[in-house]
Write a sequence for this structure.
């Protein structure tokens, strides 16, 4: 017991020493000044986790890509019905899909990525002012929200914009280097989010505005991830395997790749498609769809030679008041009995953030 406690105390000391630098993983790269980078022990995955990885095979199957061209056609038109059917299939079988011709200009996507890079690659003293683990702070920069809970820290830094308690973002709270690009990107997302929730509603056999009336898009968290090149990506991960505590997540990823989805117990790559956005079903949509749509495990691997970036926007529903969510009555009436209890987003999110990202899905807390 004494040896175990000493080991835990030593790890905690290492975690705190790293955190106190307020420099993130990028700070390790900068400190090496072009020389070899030693991966600190706190980032090394435990042997049992690495062994478990070896048991999973890879598949050449690819996450479905859906062309939204014609999505504005009348509800019930042949083109829109085709899109709805593709969304239904992807949401039931994969829990993931990519969308192209989604209406957000390529320039907006490029500027968003440029802003993420410029924030992370600016002088470290400028970033330190945003470094925080205060849950009440809307805009903050840190390494891993679950840094002190996970079995191994992930090789990434994140700029987070948490709009779950307050839905209104003051642009002046954002770092100046990425302020305009972030506001522009969030504004452009609004129409796409409305369209996606309409398609998902129709895919559940509901009226197009059903999920909108549930206010599934109400609160958001924007996570701008920066994954520096990792000298030994086999020993660590960019982000641990997990499911998302959201209704849906929309992800912008760069050409480096590394996002993987667990499909039929095999890892499938989410290939980079220029201009595409990745959409995945979160836990909350799996619950309200009564298990019809699937929130699936995914992760991001590291890259030995290139820095990877991604921007995830999580849509959580109403979280600032105790609004009750549960399996949608119309869906339940047409299928099996409810398999989940009712819940509030606030309670669900509290449970999510009180555990490590790599622990069991939060769905277990509300499953009947």
């Amino acid at each position: 017991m004494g040896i175990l406690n000493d080991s835990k105390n030593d790890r905690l000391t290492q975690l705190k020493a790293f955190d106190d630098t307020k420099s993130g993983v990028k700070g390790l790269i900068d400190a090496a000044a072009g020389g070899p980078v030693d991966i600190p022990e706190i980032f090394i995955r435990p042997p049992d986790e690495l062994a478990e990885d070896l048991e999973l095979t890879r598949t050449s199957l690819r996450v479905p890509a859906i062309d939204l061209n014609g999505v504005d056609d009348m509800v019930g038109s042949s083109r829109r019905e085709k899109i709805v059917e593709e969304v239904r299939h992807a949401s039931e079988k994969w829990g993931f899909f990519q969308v192209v011709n989604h209406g957000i200009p390529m320039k907006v996507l490029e500027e968003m990525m440029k802003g993420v890079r410029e924030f992370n690659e600016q002088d470290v003293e400028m970033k330190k002012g945003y470094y925080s683990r205060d849950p009440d702070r809307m805009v903050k920069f840190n390494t891993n929200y679950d840094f002190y809970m996970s079995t191994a820290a992930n090789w990434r830094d994140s700029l987070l914009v948490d709009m779950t308690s307050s839905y209104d973002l003051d642009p002046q709270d954002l770092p100046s280097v990425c302020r305009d690009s972030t506001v522009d990107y969030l504004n452009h997302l609004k129409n796409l989010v409305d369209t996606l929730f309409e398609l998902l509603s129709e895919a559940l056999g509901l009226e197009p505005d059903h999920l909108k009336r549930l206010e599934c898009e109400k609160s958001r968290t924007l996570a701008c991830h920066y994954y520096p090149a990792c000298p030994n990506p086999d020993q660590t991960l960019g982000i641990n395997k997990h499911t998302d505590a959201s209704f849906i997540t929309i992800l912008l990823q760069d050409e480096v790749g590394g996002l993987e989805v667990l499909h039929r117990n095999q890892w499938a790559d989410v290939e980079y498609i220029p201009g595409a956005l990745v959409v995945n079903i979160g836990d909350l949509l799996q619950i309200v769809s009564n298990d019809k749509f699937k929130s699936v495990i995914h992760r991001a691997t590291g890259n030995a030679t290139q820095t990877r970036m991604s921007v995830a926007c999580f849509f959580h529903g109403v979280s600032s008041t105790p609004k009750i969510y549960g399996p949608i009555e119309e869906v339940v009436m047409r299928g099996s009995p409810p398999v989940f209890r009712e819940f509030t987003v606030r309670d669900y999110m509290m449970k999510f953030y009180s555990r490590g990202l790599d622990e069991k899905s939060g769905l277990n807390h509300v499953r009947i």
